[in-house]
Amino acid sequence: MALIDIGLEQTSSATLQDFLVKLCERLGLEHAAYAGMDQSQGDIRGFVTYPEEWVRHYRENNLAKGDATLHLASRSIAPVDWSRIPRSEEYDRFLDRAMDFGIPRNGVTVPVRGPFGDIGMLSVSMSGSADAWARTYARVVPELQVAAVHVHDNVVRAFASPHPGIRPTLSAREVEILQWIAVGKTQRDIGSILAISDRTVEVHLRSARTKLAALTTAQAVARGIKARLIDPE
Is tRNA processing set as a keyword in this record (predicted)? Predict the structure, then answer.
């Protein structure tokens, strides 16, 4: 499953749902969910692979109010590992309810912020021991950060109210460095390849992140691919 597949056809709820299912299959996870909020419009849109019974129960009982994963992720720029969330009576009750519907306690929520005040959160979960989850977390988070940007940008493009079109203009050097990052090179590798210092590489990366409204280099690469500024191959 190529992450750019979702952008090659008209994005729909079914397409996004299918993407989440395939993401779980690819990474060996049980469930995935995306929640996006356009703060300027107050709109919230979600896509999940959870059982319909849990989705209905969550909505009817307004469980978002006690969902600490969403509250913390909406204020964070880093992935939120559910196992590290401070426990409270309200959160414990939320986890117990989720377990009753077969939702595992192991999971992570990856936040994404767009240039127009929009926020997206991609959550995944799996059963297993704490040690198994720690290994899985380390393995999947880099790809989840790219996937989160990918899903969020497609949702914004397909469903959100239109914003003034802004196509980022990157310098040739910024594009070149992002391209090397996309194929797995480190900043030190890139410095050696281009005969420039590590610090100069970071300066160009910081500029590219700013122009692409990306909080991380992984997000910048994902948005560069989406804008066809760089080639993922």
Answer: no
Q: Per residue in 127-151, pLDDT tens?
A: 999 999 999 999 999 999 989 988 8
Q: Would you state the structure tokens that stand for residue 226, as one six-digit string?
A: 């989406």
Radius of gyration (C-alpha) of the chain in whole angstroms: 18
- Six-digit token pair at 49? 């692979």
DSSP letters spanning 66-134? G-HHHHHHTT-SS-EEGGGSPP-HHHHHHHHHHHHTT--SEEEEEEEE-TTSEEEEEEEEE-S-HHHHH
Q: Which residues contact 187 (CB under 8 A, 6 or more apart)?
A: 198, 201, 202, 205
Residue 110, amino acid: V
Beta strands in the chain (DSSP E): 31-38, 43-48, 80-81, 106-113, 118-126
Is residue 172 packed enough to be buried (19+ CB in 10 Å), middle (13-18) or exposed (0-12)? exposed
Domains and CATH numbers, the chain: 3-159 (3.30.450.80), 172-226 (1.10.10.10)
Nearest-angstrom CA–CA distance, 222 and 112: 12
DSSP H or E segment with residue 55:
helix 52-60
